[in-house]
Structures are given as C-alpha cells and as structure tokens.
C-alpha cells in the first residue's frame, strides 16, 4: 500500500484563503440583501405613512366592530327554507384574522399611494406638503413607482381573492382609476370628496369578509349594515375637506380645486364643524346608545372644533386631521355600544318600521 501524502503547508493556506473568500462573499451578499430589504421596507413605510392613522387603522377598526356586531350582518340560511340563524360571533377567530385584514388593507393602500404619488401634480404638491415621501425625497422615481404598480397590482388582487375580498377589491380599483387616471383628484372638491368617500367605504365593506373568514353568507351585510355604510359614506363626503386644510400651500401651487381654496378657509372650517356635529348626533340617534356615549362623541367634537376655529396654521390643521381620525374611529365603535346595550333594531330604524 502506498502511503497517504500529507498536504503541504502552502496547499492548506490556499484552502483557507478560498474558504475565507467564500465566507466573505456570503456575508457581503447577505449584507447587501439586508440593506436592500430594509431600504425598500422603509420606502413602503414612508409611502403609506400619512395613511396609517387616518385610513388603515380606522378601516381595521370598522372591520373589527362590524364583524363583532350581529345587527350589521344578515342572518344566514339554514337547510330549512323558512328559517335563518343569527351570524355566529367569535371574538377569538375575529382577532386571529386581524393580521390577514391588515395585510389586505396595507397592500391595497400601497397600490393606491403608488398610483397617486407618481403623477407630476402630486410630486409637486408633495414637494411642498410632504417632502418626506419617497418620490420627492429621491428614494423612488416616478418610473420606478409605475413599475412597482405594474408588478404589484396582479399580486395584490390575487392576494385579495385568496383572503376573501374578490368582489369588493375591483370596486376599489375602479374608484382609484377614476381618481388618478381620469383626473378625479383635480376636479371640483365635491367630486373628489365623493370618490374618496366611495373608496373609504369600499375598503370598509371589503375588509369585513376577511375578518369573518370564509364564512360564505355570514359576511353579508344586513339592511342595517348597508344603512350604516351609507351613513359613513355621508360622514366622509361631508367632512373629508379637513385633510385639505393642512395642504393648502401645495394645493395652491398646482391649482388643485379643494374646498378651502374654492369657497374660502373660513367656510371650509365651519362646514366641517357643522357636519361633524350633525353626524355625531345622527349616528348616536341611529344606534340609540346610552348617554355616556353621547358625552364621549360631544367631547371629541369639542376638541376638533376648538382646534379648527382657534388655531389656523398648517401644524394645527395636521393635528385637527388626526383628531378627525379619532372622531371617525369613535363612530365606527357605535355598533358595539348598541349591540352590548340594546336589542332588536337600532332606535331610528325601529321608530321608522314600527311607527
């Protein structure tokens, strides 16, 4: 037998160098991948940052409360043709579906923001009002945003189908097309408010089946549910100009016809005050809630009115917009107050049907 040759010291050194180079290459690749991933995640966060408190979280709250409110959902059919059953409410399963609902609303918000923020008028406005956004800050180009939209749109719709919002998501995309591709954002402020309110309510309707899971008929709205969605649409249509108060400088620069610029800052503020007071009273009356809830709604209204009328600058208006989001969220909670304190129909509908 021939003796095994012991490797020389030079070959050992070469082997160690190769291993070190391979290890360095892997580390460099992982470091580059991590940097690209964190950079893109930061870009997505900045893209949707202004929508988190005023759109994403309130929509999640609407879906959560609607899913836990039997009065908003239609009775489901049973094998017996003349009988139905009340939708089954499970707090545990509803809460477990929250990550799925968040994934749906956030992915669709990304599509909306990519479509909106890549247009030249929006870039000019954001350069003044929201310079932190990815395109005006240079993190993302308008062409890159277009390509992101091209690739993300079919993925997001496939995700919506998988999560149970196949019918509602196309309605949102139609509203988005009308706003951004047909110039709805640049039309009269009333048209813009109506389209934006339609998008808001479309998301609210679409998120309920995701919270409910694949429950078939258990995710359908009742007459009360659709009436409530109609009221929320009216709420947003008549108060959404609160978002335009803080953006007047940028809107003026691009000639956008927002309510504060068309009818005047003072008129716009008083219209918000009147609408929020009216809708607070109307929604509390609709649900027939207890006096403690009325006090809560009035207290939020007082905070909003004080901010709108006493402090009139961009920073104060940004705070007013956040208070408006809190007020909207408090309205979304009203079905839960009703369902835990009353029985039968909401008070307003009960008066209408039985009186």
Please outline the major beta sheet: 2 strands, antiparallel
Number of helices: 17
Strand arrangement in the largest pleated sheet: 1-2
Order of helices and strands: HEEHHHHHHHHHHHHHHHH
Shape: globular
Binned, the helix content reads over 70%
- End-to-end distance: 109 Å
Number of distinct beta strands: 2
Mean pLDDT: 80
Radius of gyration: 26 Å
The fraction of residues in strands falls at under 5%
Uncertain stretches? 76-84, 341-355
The structural class is mainly alpha
Q: Can you describe what's shown?
A:
- This protein has about 350 residues and is an all-alpha fold.
- The chain contains 17 helices and two strands.
- The protein has helices at about 10-65, 90-95, 100-115, 120-130, 135, 140-165, 170-180, 190-210, 225-240, 240-245, 250-255, 260, 265-285, 290-310, 315-330, 335-340, 345-355, and strands spanning about 75, 85.
- It has a two-stranded antiparallel sheet.
- A hairpin with a 6-residue loop joins strand 1 (about 75) and strand 2 (about 85).
- Helix 4 (about 120-130) packs antiparallel against helix 11 and helix 7 (about 170-180) runs antiparallel to helix 8 (about 190-210).
- The longest helix has about 60 residues, at about 10-65.
- It is globular.
- Residues about 75-85 and about 340-355 have low confidence and may be disordered.
Could you outline the blueprint of secondary structure elements for this entry?
Elements: H1 9-67, E1 76-77, E2 84-85, H2 91-96, H3 98-117, H4 120-129, H5 134-137, H6 142-163, H7 168-181, H8 189-212, H9 223-239, H10 242-245, H11 248-254, H12 259-262, H13 265-287, H14 291-310, H15 314-332, H16 334-341, H17 347-354
């Amino acid at each position: 037998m021939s003796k095994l040759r012991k490797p020389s010291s030079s070959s050992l050194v070469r082997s160690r160098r190769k291993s070190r180079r391979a290890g360095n290459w892997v580390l460099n690749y992982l470091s580059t991948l991590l940097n690209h991933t964190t950079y893109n995640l930061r870009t997505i966060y900045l893209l949707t940052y202004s929508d988190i408190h005023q759109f994403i979280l309130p929509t999640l709250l609407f879906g959560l409360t609607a899913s836990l409110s039997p009065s908003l959902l239609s009775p489901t059919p049973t094998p017996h043709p003349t009988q139905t059953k009340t939708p089954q409410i499970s707090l545990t399963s509803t809460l477990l579906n929250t990550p799925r609902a968040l994934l749906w609303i956030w992915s669709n918000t990304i599509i909306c923001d990519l479509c909106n923020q890549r247009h030249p008028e929006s870039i000019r406005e954001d350069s003044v009002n929201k310079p932190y956004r990815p395109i005006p800050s240079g993190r993302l180009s308008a062409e890159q945003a277009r390509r992101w939209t091209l690739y993300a749109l079919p993925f997001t719709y496939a995700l919506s189908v998988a999560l149970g919002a196949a019918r509602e998501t196309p309605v949102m995309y139609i509203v988005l097309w009308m706003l951004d591709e047909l110039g709805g954002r640049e039309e009269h402020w009333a048209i813009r408010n109506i389209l934006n309110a339609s998008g808001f309510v479309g998301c609210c309707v679409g998120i309920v089946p995701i919270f409910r899971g694949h429950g078939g008929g258990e995710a359908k709205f009742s007459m009360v549910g659709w009436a409530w969605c109609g009221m929320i649409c009216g709420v947003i249509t008549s108060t959404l100009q609160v978002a335009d108060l803080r953006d007047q400088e940028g809107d003026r620069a691009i000639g956008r016809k927002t309510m504060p610029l068309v009818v005047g800052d003072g008129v716009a503020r008083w219209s918000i005050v009147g609408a929020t007071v009216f809708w607070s009273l109307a929604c509390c009356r609709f649900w027939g809630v207890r006096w403690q809830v009325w006090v809560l709604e009035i207290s939020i209204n007082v905070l909003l009115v004080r901010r709108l009328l006493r402090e009139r600058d961009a920073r104060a208006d940004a705070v007013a917009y956040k208070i408006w989001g809190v007020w909207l969220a408090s309205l979304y909670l009203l079905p839960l107050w009703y369902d835990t304190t009353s029985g039968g129909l909401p008070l307003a509908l009960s008066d209408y049907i039985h009186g």
